[in-house]
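Input sequence (227 aa), recorded before submission:
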Amino acid sequence: LKPANDILALHSSPHSHLHFGENYQQELLEKSKLLPKEIRWHFIGALQTNKCKPLAEQIPNLWCVESVDAAKKADQLQKGREALCEREPEYRDLPLRIFVQVNTSGEEEKSGVEPGDAADLCKHIMEKCPRLKLQGLMTIGAIARSRGVAEGVENEDFVTLREIRDKVAKELGLNEIDLELSMGMSEDFESAIRCGSNEVRIGSTIFGERPAKKDAQIKDDVDRGNG
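Predicted structure, token format:
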């Protein structure tokens, strides 16, 4: 958990960053209420189906959900965004962007659709979820693979996601550039960029390691920062 004031510092001039990600829904809900509405939030954590609708409905400036791995989750995000648009019509022309998360490493503990099922999920989002916009594919590569590869060799998870993207684009009649790649974090973002990543998710390199939950301060720091 990171203080909202850390995010505010990066959002404010002269840095003026717009895009920030959060792993936990409750933390995102709290910070979205405290911080400027110009911020474009990315939810990058594990998604529970029953939390999808309120996530999309309660955060108007939710820019993107990067961890969709099932059609029923996409359907609930669609319902939430539709409810938001009915309540606040100014968002009708602003679809919620979606990355389909693919489990490229085969690790059981990781979320993500199986590589062979990615195209079907992408097609579902495109055809059945008009309030959502398919932005691309995401993976959380195995850090051990990034650490273990020889110089000049890239993490096979990143190579695999790029290959899946190319295959999905062909199956759906899209250009490869129409589907972005979200891959790479603090420890392996350079390799991900070399493999064609459009978006890297940098947390600890910028903000430092997450403190223990009991030490988290979300609201107080913003109040002091605005005082």
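Checked by second reader. The chain is about 45% helix and 15% strand.
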